[in-house]
Amino acid sequence: MDFHVKNRDGPARIGQLSLNRKTVVTPNILFLHTSRCKAPEFSDILLTHEKVKTNKPVVCIGKSIFSKGKKERQKNSSINNYLLYPRDVSKELHLSAQNSNKNAEYCIIPAKKELISTLTNTNDAHLFIVSHATQLYSQQTQFVEFITELRQNIGNNSLIYLPCVGDPTSIALLTYMGVDLFDSFSAILAARNDTLLFPTGLYKKNQLAELPCSCPSCIQKNDASMMDYEAILQHNYYMLLYAMKEARNAIIAGSLRELVEIRVRASPHLSSLLRLLDLSHYAFLEERTPIVRKQPLIATTKDALVRPEIRRFQERVIHRFEKPASAKILLLLPCSAKKPYSFSKSHKLFRECFVNLNNPFVVHEVILTSPLGLVPRELELTYPASSYDTAVTGHWDEDEKKMIRTLLQQYLQNNTYDTTIMHIPLSIQAFVSDLFKNPRITCTDSPTSAESLVKLSEALHHTTPHYTRVNPQRRTCENITSLACYQFGPALAALLMKDCTICGKYPYQKIMYNNTQLGMVTEERGLISLTMAGAERLADAERYWVEIFDDFPLKGSVLAPGIKDADESIRIGDEVLVRKSKHLCGIGVALMNGNEMTRSTFGEAVKIRHHR
Asked: Closest by alpha carbon to 373, among 359, 384, 363, 381?
């Protein structure tokens, strides 16, 4: 057995599993195949306790795996025994039972969180099978804690299999949590109970006036009440396949989280699992969530308010970001449908109010929005601020109000202004105005109405002349410094931006020191991409570094086997400094997080941009 990760989306992975000289894609489904219950033709892996002649990979329970045309027993290829006894027994009994289930490639893990470290610390198994999974799954808190703890301990090179857990409604969420393999027992049990599985829920055959499905089984029968066990079973198999392919496509597209938020609506139990995962295991999700993404972030549910990329953005704005030093006037603005904001019609109208100002660069624009909270103008190109979409109704619920108020309060503790101009709708003014002392309000109805725009222009012309004129070149450099604070932290930003100037037209701007380019900001990425000269400025900071082995040749990419050690704070999409014997030798973009780089034995870890 061999396993390699090919694509990532949060904790979920697309992988290639080599089993019996056959390769299948994960996540996947083990279809039960016996003399009484035949697996469907489209199955990729068979699960059985019998000898089977087939070209497909076969996982046998209690026996060896057999390949077509081979009768010899293959070693270390079977799941010897399930732990068929109650979950809630003593630790000693669990460990005693575990001794009879030792296998070089498989490890059966009792569904007890306290046993995970004992059974995984020195275990090199490729596949970890969770026994008592159905009992554990019914206990939301324990289930989420167990799966996250197990994934943390075994790393990304091993697979997790949940026997008898997983149906078309839950497969998306379970793969998002990091589960790789499921089986067909849910389809069989449902068919025995005359129940048809759908991604939107489970329905008894007599509940369906007509079949909302076009699988071969449903097309042939047409009338759900007339479907027998075999017809329902085949339908359920197709629904499992549909849900699995849907999840895999979402992982490749980078949109699995959006799919999860849709699917959990089918069940209060699934909604609870996602909520517990978001609220109690943010660190687990954040470590595996990239800082850049091509796919837009679709925020249509309250679950989006606590998505890991949104929480990380908010924390960086509060704890890393520093406003441009010369900005003295805070201008609060509403968001726009089009992203980035500067390219929208409404924000172009706002910018027209700056025309003919003698001192426009003393103003700092901050956009108030849900689900992000607040977005300083300098961060409008960064993900997720650059590409999110949400339902706009003009009504703010209490969770959104609390979120924006809290973030504003924390932001104003670290960033002070002399004057505040509020050009935001009345619905937002109602819950943020009391946070400011004597704010100047310029929006009376719609922010883009002629009357409101005139008031904004008058307020800017009245307040900006009272401050020392800010040089445009200086303010541009401060804007990039603020972006660098968000990306690297204030200490590294100061090292990178010392004595620098900025050239180029927004949104494509270069960081220059004399005639040497240190980095560049582009619209596509929204972050600073470093050159070797820029990396040299950060080389002694001991952040965002990857140490490779002395004999590893540095060419187009750094592969995981060549990495000796890496900074644990690295996330997918980060700028990373590649070192050899503590000396800088390259700069690139991380394709794995720091922990995965040091634990993985396969895959591209860093895409090199420049090297020596």
From this structure: 384
pLDDT of res. 69: 38
From the list 267, 257, 364, 369, the residue with the least C-alpha distance to 321 is 364
**In 466-503, which positions are buried (b, 16+ CB within 10 angstroms) versus exposed (e)?**
ebeebeeeebbbbbbbbbbbbbbbbebbebbbeebebe
pTM: 0.92
Residue 72 has pLDDT above 90, yes or no: no
Tokens 């589960």 belong to which residue?
Answer: 179
Do the Cβ atoms of 592 and 561 come closer than 8 Å? Answer: no
| Side-chain-side CA neighbours of residue 353 (13 Å) | 27
* Per-residue pLDDT tens digits for 430-476: 999 999 999 999 998 899 999 999 999 999 999 999 999 999 999 99
CB of 466 closer than 8 Å to CB of 359? no
Amino acid identity of 195?
A: T
Q: How many CB atoms lie within 10 A of CB 228?
A: 11
206 closest CA partner among 183, 185, 227: 227
Torsion angle of C-alpha atoms 275, 277, 280, 282, degrees rounded to 10: -120
Written as one string, the DSSP assignment of 157-196 is: SSEEE-TT---TTTHHHHHHHT--EEESHHHHHHHHTTEE
Looking from the CA of 180 toward its CB, the CA atoms found within 13 Å total 28
| Interatomic CA distance for residues 140 and 143, integer angstroms | 5
Q: 3-state DSSP call for residue 129?
A: strand
Token pair of 333 as six digits? 């603005």
The residue assigned the tokens 């995962």 is 277
Report the C-alpha gap between 441 and 421 in whole angstroms: 6
